[in-house]
Amino acid sequence: MAPVLALVGATGAVGTVMIDIINGRETVPWGEIRLIASARSAGKKITVRGEELTVVALSPEAFDGVDIAMFDVPDEISAEWAPIAASRGAVAVDNSGAFRMDDEVPLVVPEVNADKVTSRPKGIIANPNCTTLSMMAALGALHREFELKELVVASYQAVSGAGKEGVDRLYAELEAVAGKGLGVRAGDVREALEAAGLPIADSPFPAALAFNVVPSAGSYKGDGWYSEELKVRNESRKILGIPDLKVSATCVRVPVVTTHSLAVHATFAREVTVEAAHKVFEAQPTVVLVDDPENGVFPTPADVVGGDPTYVGRVRQALDFPNTLDFFVCGDNLRKGAALNTYEIAEQLAPEFS
Amino acid sequence: MAPVLALVGATGAVGTVMIDIINGRETVPWGEIRLIASARSAGKKITVRGEELTVVALSPEAFDGVDIAMFDVPDEISAEWAPIAASRGAVAVDNSGAFRMDDEVPLVVPEVNADKVTSRPKGIIANPNCTTLSMMAALGALHREFELKELVVASYQAVSGAGKEGVDRLYAELEAVAGKGLGVRAGDVREALEAAGLPIADSPFPAALAFNVVPSAGSYKGDGWYSEELKVRNESRKILGIPDLKVSATCVRVPVVTTHSLAVHATFAREVTVEAAHKVFEAQPTVVLVDDPENGVFPTPADVVGGDPTYVGRVRQALDFPNTLDFFVCGDNLRKGAALNTYEIAEQLAPEFS
Q: How does the annotation summarize its subunit structure (chains A, B) (predicted)?
């Protein structure tokens, strides 16, 4: 019998992209697809592959008969409900931060460590955070060839990483400031937002995003670090299987709707050239090389948003650091950075239940 | 007699900020202030410290009697005219890229290497590029205390780095896209700009800036590097007096009007703690520490634009790299990044001519 797939959080920002992805697949291995969301969204109708499905409320019984349950919900909902789904016999593929660093939960990027899915003592597999995921296909491919040792990363993160609320906020801010000649005096953007009924206190972000960049992502974790920066470090180590990988990350929110970008400075154990790196990227089906800087060709978020691959450009040998590449990478944080990677894990699991 | 100051490029983007700075000073050491610009702008009246001055056209004679001539003009104009000013007896303080790496021209940031102004065999002193300058007060202070060895930098550069044309372009782009729900599909921003009569081909930037970041600044210099990235390396080495400083920079344009930001990963010869770094920054009059991440306090460009100091926050010890700090720095690229530093050099020279 074909496996039963459940999608928990079907009506959220990532859930909506997940349904797009399922609808876009040529074929799917699923018998039934079950949409699960909060009681508030239950009863809503959503068309999936030509069939109108009714969203059901989250409950233990909702997982009965489910083989694979994908979770696109906040950490605390996953923390409570992924184990319930697992106890009902489903494999939970969780896109929250609740289980990523749990030793008994594999953290999987299929093109990097697909082999890890089989060992899942808790019946849970975790999907990495979107910032880490945005560079992982590229880094994993380089690591296989050159052995990664050190990573210094600065991010340019899209507002949709903070969900629909983040996107709505950026749109509202830009409408409020456009055409007013702002951004030239300290506080003028902040004042204009207040005047437009958009005080920073009501924003999901701690500062204006219009005409601004904000060096803060996630919650404060002590010693100067925000959670997103520590996730990049800890999740990269776990996914790549390099427990002593040296990592420093600075995570910065920028006024981009969707698609995270990262400036990556990566040092390897072995010699690496631009030519060799290009070959590695070209051989990786989920990486697209966009790298002709002489002709102004490089990836930018607005040019690649909505795509599945990881886009890589600006590849160059660091002038003063041996065995080191600098490059720029863009990945859609809602697709590969969230929904797509989760779905790819589910697809990989499907044959077990067929 | 009080020295005569000339401002070449008085009507440009940086020149305008320069006049603001001169007007904002409590006292100035100048006898005469002479405004010089292209023939097109000659005759224009500009009020400087309560006096209406008439802009004169650039000519060799315009420098007669001038002691210090500040140049805020494109590279090729400086390359031609700074030596002419010098041959007429003025010291040229040049904000272009024409002479920065010339061995016979000092490259000066007063709070870092003020002592270099006295040796100027060509009669020219160069002002660093705005990206390097935006972090130099902070790095110079740290270097004195801990001895800088390595620098990995990613920039978030404002559009005014590309002059008034860059600012006008960002404003026009945002007006064209605001309220349209764009940035969610590859190319939708580009298409909207084309539909609004703003094709990328007409932009000073090689891609959209609205809802985007662009990993390109300056001209292409080979081996994957753009000029701005090489300037950060070469100028940092020269200003700090560390010819073998290891530097990797990735320069990225962001939709911010004015104020460059940089994510800095700096490795020192000696042990460095956050507390020690805070002390160094607090002791540096031109640096303002904005660093209470637990309470969401850090510098952002829109919150500090228009200010003279270098704003530093997010200071933390790298977890895996010895003697290494990560921090985030914001500096107004038109003030300290251009006009202010040039003027500070001129102020430092004034007593020589009094």
A: Homodimer.
In angstroms, the separation between the Cα of residue B110 and the nearest Cα of chain A is: 24
Task: Of A132, A91, A127, A130, give the one whose Cα is nearest residue A110.
Answer: A127
Q: Is A102 on the interface with B (CB under 8 A)?
A: no
Nearest residue on chain A to B300, alpha-carbon basis: A214
Identical fold, B5-127+339-352 and B132-161+215-331:
no
Per DSSP, chain B holds a count of helices (H) and strands (E) of: 10, 14
B224 reaches A (C-beta below 8 A): yes
> Which of A211, A216, A328 is nearest residue B215 as measured by Cβ atoms?
A328
| pLDDT, one tens digit for every residue, chain B (354 residues) | 899 999 999 999 899 999 999 999 999 999 999 999 999 999 999 999 999 999 999 999 999 999 999 999 999 999 999 999 999 999 999 999 999 999 999 999 999 999 999 999 999 999 999 999 999 999 999 999 999 999 999 999 999 998 889 999 999 999 999 999 999 999 999 999 999 999 999 999 999 999 999 999 999 999 999 999 999 999 999 999 999 999 999 999 999 999 999 999 999 999 999 999 999 999 999 999 999 999 999 999 999 999 999 999 999 999 999 999 999 999 999 999 899 999 999 999 999 998
Give the span between the Cα atoms of B225 and B221, in whole angstroms.
6
Answer whether A178 sits within 8 Å of B174, measured CB to CB: yes
The helix (run of H) or strand (run of E) holding residue B69 is: strand B68-71
Contacts with A329 (C-beta within 8 Å, 6 or more apart), sequence order:
A134, A135, A138, A261, A262, A264, A299, A310, A311, A312, A313
* 3 state SS of B262: strand
Neighbours of B328 (CB within 10 A): 29
- Residue A130 falls in the annotated catalytic set: yes
Classified by CATH at the fold level, domain B132-161+215-331 comes out as Dihydrodipicolinate Reductase; domain 2 (3.30.360)
Mutation site, A159, A300, A325, interface B, largest B CB count within 10 A? A300
Fold of A5-127+339-352: Rossmann fold (3.40.50)
What is the C-alpha to C-alpha distance for residues B176 and B198, in angstroms, rounded to an integer?
Answer: 9
Chain B hits for A175, CB-CB cut-off 8 Å, are 178-179
Domain-wise residue ranges, chain B: 5-127+339-352, 132-161+215-331
Minimal C-alpha gap between A344 and chain B (Å): 21
CA-based angle A158:A326:B324, to the nearest 5?
A: 85
Predicted ipTM > 0.90: yes
Query: Which residues, listed in sequence order, are joined to residue A37 by a DSSP beta bridge?
Result: A57
DSSP state of B85: H
Is any Cβ of chain A less than 8 angstroms from the Cβ of B201? no
A260 is catalytic: yes
Structure confidence by residue, pLDDT tens digits, A239-273? 999 999 999 999 999 999 999 999 999 999 999 99
Judge: A177–B179 Cβ closer than 8 Å, yes or no: no
